[in-house]
Design a protein that fits this description.
about 130 residues; alpha+beta; five-stranded mixed β-sheet; four-stranded antiparallel β-sheet; 9 strands; about 20% helix; globular
Length: about 130
């Protein structure tokens, strides 16, 4: 799948056809129909998956990895390889990098697998007093 990377502090992810909002400022709908799956880097082994097909592929990938690597964590680049190789032309991956996710200097990353027609917009935080 295609991986789109964003580094915005806050974003809005929505379906312009159905008007379904997956993420907006301080709002998450992890059960949204347009959200196929989400992996959070601080808990990558326990994703939110709303589709049985990718859930089965994930479990196969994860179990195969753990068989040979019991003491090795699943690093981001290995996980991204799974997403890149997963073939579904109707979906894309949004990789959202942000330190706000974990409220720490190390930051966190979230990978959202969404329908291809999902739109991303940066949220303007200046009205909330945020200045870069």
């Amino acid at each position: 799948m295609e991986i789109v990377e964003i580094d915005w502090l806050e974003c809005k992810i929505f379906n312009p056809v159905t008007k379904e909002i997956i993420i907006d400022f301080c709002f998450f709908d992890l059960k949204a129909k347009s959200l196929i799956a989400a992996w959070f880097s601080d808990n990558i082994e326990d994703p939110v998956i709303n589709n049985k097909t990718i859930e089965g592929a994930w479990m196969d990938f994860y179990n195969d990895f753990k068989k040979g690597n019991k003491d090795i964590p699943l690093f981001d680049f290995l996980f991204e390889g799974f997403l890149e190789k997963y073939d579904n032309p109707d979906w894309k991956v949004i990789r959202h990098n942000g330190s706000w996710l974990a409220h720490s200097p190390q930051g966190a990353t979230v990978w959202y697998v969404v329908e291809k027609d999902i739109v991303l917009e940066e949220v303007d935080l200046t009205e909330f007093g945020y200045q870069e």
